[in-house]
Amino acid sequence: MPSYHAPLKEMQFVLHDLLNLGNHYATLGYDDATPELVDAVLEEAAKFTESVIAPLNRVGDEQGCRFENGEVTTPQGFKEAYQQYVEAGWPTLAQPTEYGGQGLPYSLNLVCAEMQSAANHAFAMYPGLTHGAQATLMAHGDESLQARFMPKLVSGEWTGTMCLTEAHSGSDLGLLRTKAVPQADGSFRLSGSKIFISSGDHDLAENIVHIVIARIEGAPAGTKGISLFLVPKIQVEEDGALGAPNGVSCGSIEHKMGIHGNATCVINFDDATGYLLGEPNRGLSAMFTFMNAARVGVATEGVAAAEAAFQGALEYARERLQMRSLSGAKCPEKAADPIIVHPDVRRMLLTQKAIAEGGRAMVYEMATWVDITKSASADPAAKQRASDRLSLLTPIAKAFLTEMGFEATSLGVQVFGGHGYVAEWGMEQLMRDTKISCLYEGTTGIQALDLLARKVLGSRGALLESYCTELAQWWMTQSLPDALLPLRQSLLAHLQQWGELTQSIALRAQKNPDEIGAASVDYLMFAGYVVLAHQWLRMALVADSFKSHDPDLWQAKQVTAQFVFTRLLPKAASHALLAGQSCDSLMQLDSSQFRS
Amino acid sequence: MPSYHAPLKEMQFVLHDLLNLGNHYATLGYDDATPELVDAVLEEAAKFTESVIAPLNRVGDEQGCRFENGEVTTPQGFKEAYQQYVEAGWPTLAQPTEYGGQGLPYSLNLVCAEMQSAANHAFAMYPGLTHGAQATLMAHGDESLQARFMPKLVSGEWTGTMCLTEAHSGSDLGLLRTKAVPQADGSFRLSGSKIFISSGDHDLAENIVHIVIARIEGAPAGTKGISLFLVPKIQVEEDGALGAPNGVSCGSIEHKMGIHGNATCVINFDDATGYLLGEPNRGLSAMFTFMNAARVGVATEGVAAAEAAFQGALEYARERLQMRSLSGAKCPEKAADPIIVHPDVRRMLLTQKAIAEGGRAMVYEMATWVDITKSASADPAAKQRASDRLSLLTPIAKAFLTEMGFEATSLGVQVFGGHGYVAEWGMEQLMRDTKISCLYEGTTGIQALDLLARKVLGSRGALLESYCTELAQWWMTQSLPDALLPLRQSLLAHLQQWGELTQSIALRAQKNPDEIGAASVDYLMFAGYVVLAHQWLRMALVADSFKSHDPDLWQAKQVTAQFVFTRLLPKAASHALLAGQSCDSLMQLDSSQFRS
User: Which residue, of A89, A119, A563, B581, has the fewest CB within 10 Å?
Assistant: First the structure.
């Protein structure tokens, strides 16, 4: 079983050296969030994660959640650990001070969330979902609702969920049937059944606040009739005290591939009292406001999985003795060489490292954009730019990093050979747990449509052009060491190819809209490799100044950047080829002909 | 839970139309194996698999094997099903008639094995391992040993295992420590501990015959001191009757990612009586004689997994209603269109179909080569050719088809969205079960080294050149419909590229042997895509004559071949790029620098 160690040095390199976080926070008026405070928070978060959360990862998987007599019980130790988590104040970190939060930036919390997810994906989802509920309440609830529900959500005494999916309504939310009936007092009564509700029921907290989408009686069909509600498991008085049970119950929990420590629930609403968030029938656009942040969070799960798999595989590859290096024995005094001498093992380890560290740079930068969009003091132009960048990069990060995170865990299993398949080594659990990140919050296919149809073509290329132009211009002004010049040239060529590819798809799509869906996933994967390469080139450039005072880090960043450009980025070539194909061979078969 | 249906029509297309099996069997003197008999066997095998083996797939996963008081108990129903399997005579199908077998060809049994593996991977491994033990005994045991052990192995009353791995000795068999001490009567006493022994202990059969590699006392270190032994769980008298228990015990079973219904055992040998197979110290080369067939079997597991995932995903995609086609509603009378209208869902389904059907053509053709190598009547030149082709294609099929089979199951989960992650739908089990095929019988990395270092460069390119030349010449003599001409052109270009890529690696490897390991996996994947494309072009060509009498099959093969050449084969381009890179970025970091 690999023991997780928070990669503080790597995190600090991205936060301080790459993103200059101190400056970023000062600009946004986070006066408390000095680099010293950031480091102190990270060190404490690392300690807590490594000592309290990580040890429960295996037991969570083995025991899973139990559902008996309508109640969900989490695995042994989860309740106590969550209690410690609340007592230590971790839920409050990036929450509004008016409701008891510490008012620190979203991005700082994301770093802590990465640690938690890497150490124990299932556990990390309880606070993760709570943040989604909180963000929705803060964005769309009125002040009295906020005052009633926020304090205990902020403290972590209550947790939250997002109730979107129904059995017949997944990616297509317009099909939902849960109905809401208005009451004389302004509240609503909700009836319906939701499925796949992560953290939907459990024994960690005394109340659970569900954010629910439903259709108000008489509302239009489809997505134009969706409204957003807050529905507590237990009713809450005006003063915030717990009242009577609400008409909310857990119908069952799913038996699933992984994240066994997190209950995935059927939640039934039977005339449950709920409160409208935002305008009637505007629920879907209200959901979108929190989706970017939620999806950046899921992208971070991909990074976390890659990091955990890399740590496990690296330790094993350094210790496991098996065969000799083809270029001559490296440890002749031992029975065999450690397998890290073998080029193909190194290829797997460097792939994991490239995803974990490059993906980390991606999501941390995106988190600084979230900071800006949430900031009251940032200027409107900066907010618009941050929002535009997030809009474009979020589906890329969500889908690309979860797919690559999954690949990194699969490579982790391969590095271990047969031992990777055995539960006690922990590698196969990482694979099973992280596969969910490719599915929830919109599958890879849904992200790809969001990117290509909505964000890129929907803005007539404006979001993309602005991003690529800014990147290209920025790179042209940088002074690079000689070794990085060919990498910059390659990056610039890929940025140009991205634009050309987009134009060719747009042209084809004018004749046949199915060209969009046919190209979408390969288009997204192409984009992901390019953005990853950009982050690695930036890291190599920043690390260039480390040559004398930290030659190991300098060397690691230079070599891994070369690896990324020579052994990962070429995969973008195939994706461009595929995204450039016509959709003919996809669309010609009748449904019945796929197998006669 | 998808119910498995043996794709008889597809199997028959490959066997009869593509491979002309009747002719092949007649040439080898299998006079009984007429096309009519083949069809009758397949139909019975399909019935048995669908009604007896498939229904135990889920329960096998849920219950797993139990280990109590030194005994392994298989999941509920496995014992009864295995009994039926034996009573129906399935184990005897391709076994020698002198020991009670039906003497039918290996290739026919492989088709049945594909069905079993697709229906229930864990169950199929029990007979699968028995075949490995039988083949080794027939190839290397003396007649008296064969007479003593074969009849009950053939009948299936006893099962077999292959005991290679030890805790410190996996890919590197030279490190093994199990020792064998010669006895006065010519037998040996074996002591040592083996791990990862599939079907190692269970309650299905009254005896288990272990094929064990061990080092005879005083033998040289490393691979030159490995000998092969037969070690029964219960001693067997000269007349074949069961005797006293042998010094063989199960120490524990592994908790693992999948194939829960098959016990993966630690098997301890304590002064256990064993019998030498073949020459002392020649055990490793003896192992190689059965490895090709065993690895073709594992490649078939990849095909089986792709087939099962395709069946499940196709059924779901035809029924699940979610969103409208971007090119206009296809089922306006329904609440939404079935998801098979979406191009990206079709991309996933066609990828699965291409792997299942193209992979099937690959492994069935290889099985005909195994038939030839096993035949007493085939002429030596034909045997040499078959052996050469197997030598080259086996690592490609084993690694490429298991990796692609795994990808097909992962796509199956994606087609189901969140439901794919839930156990009751069966898709996630397919993923977990088939991941083992990328690991056992040599990981993907080991297969890649076997291909590039041993088979291709080890023959100074001769095996490859002979294969590619034959393929290219054959294709040039074929008369193709116009639509397939560009595909042939593409295939021929790829065959040429394969040779050029090989030469460039060989040149670099002369300076630095690490170039081989660095290029190996991408080299193998490139080769896999090319061979898959070749099979699809052949299928499209053969199916061209179906246009009038079976237009659906004609259409399906033409369109899928176009899909393969435009949407799968382009991935070979990236692998060629990667295999063409120098190994520098892989080898420059010191082990300590991967993470400082």
Answer: A89
Which residue among B403, B428, B441, B515 is the active-site one?
B441
Q: Which residues of B touch A419 (CB under 8 A)?
A: 170
SS3 for B393-422 is HHHHHHHHHHHHHHHHHHHHHHHHHHHHHE
Picking from B200, B89, B218, B104, the residue whose alpha carbon sits closest to that of residue B155 is B89
Catalytic residue status for B217 = no
- Mark yes or no for CB contact B342/A517 under 8 Å: yes
Q: What is the pLDDT of residues A239-291, one digit of tens each?
A: 999 999 999 999 999 999 999 999 999 999 999 999 999 999 999 988 876 77
* Cβ-based contacts under 8 A for chains A and B: 304
The bridge status of strand B71-73 relative to strand A179-182 is unpaired
Domain ranges of chain B: 460-583
B555: which chain A residues are within 8 Å (Cβ-Cβ)? 588-589, 593
Chain center to CA of A228? 23
Look up tokens 């999916």; give the residue.
A165
Q: Among B255, B445, B513, select the one facing A424 at the smallest CB separation.
A: B255
- Structural contact between residues B126 and B202, judged by C-beta atoms closer than 8 angstroms: yes
Query: A207 has which bridge partners?
Result: A158
8 Å CB contact between A95 and A134? yes
All residues of chain B having their beta carbon less than 8 Å from the beta carbon of residue A521 are 344, 347
Of the candidates A442, A450, A441, which has an alpha carbon nearest to the alpha carbon of residue A162? A441
- Per residue in B29-87, pLDDT (tens digit) is 999 999 999 999 999 999 999 999 999 999 999 999 999 999 999 999 999 999 999 99
The DSSP result for A182-234, as a single string, is E-TTS-EEEEEEEEEEET-S-SSSSEEEEEEEEEETTPPSGGGG-EEEEEESE
Residue in this structure with the two tokens 């600084």, named with its chain if needed: A368
| Contact assignment for A574 to B578 by CB distance below 8 Å | no
Side chain identity, residue A164: L
* The pLDDT of residue B293 is above 90: no
Residue among B343, B432, B518 minimizing CB distance to A518 = B343
Contacts with B345 from chain A: Cβ below 8 Å: 445
State the first-to-last Cα distance of chain A, in angstroms, to the nearest integer. 47
- The sign of the CA dihedral A342, A345, A349, A350 is positive
How wide is the angle at C-alpha A464 spanned by C-alphas A463 and A465, nearest 5°?
95
Sign of CA dihedral B145, B147, B152, B153: positive
| Contact between chains at B421 and A431 (C-beta distance less than 8 A) | no
Task: Tell if the CB–CB gap between B414 and A444 is shorter than 8 Å.
Answer: yes
Model confidence over B466-511: pLDDT tens digits? 999 999 999 999 999 999 999 999 999 999 999 999 999 999 999 9
What is the three-class DSSP state of A247?
Answer: coil
**Helix pair angle (B514-543, A343-374), 10° resolution:** 80
Q: Is the ipTM reported for this complex over the cut 0.95?
A: yes
- Joined tokens for residue B274: 């064993």
The answer to whether the CB atoms of B258 and A421 lie below 8 A apart is: yes
- Pairing mode of beta strands B179-182, B188-198: antiparallel
Alpha carbon distance, N-terminus to C-terminus of chain B: 47
CA distance B328 to chain A (A): 9
Least Cα separation, residue B342 to chain A (angstroms): 7
Cβ contacts of A345 on chain B, cutoff 8 Å: 445
CA distance B152 to chain A (A): 30
The structure's pTM equals 0.98
For residue A596, give the nearest of B419, B431, B552 by CB distance: B552
Chain B closest-CA separation from residue A62 CA (Å): 10
Contacts of B145 (CB under 8 A, 6+ apart): B137, B230, B275, B277
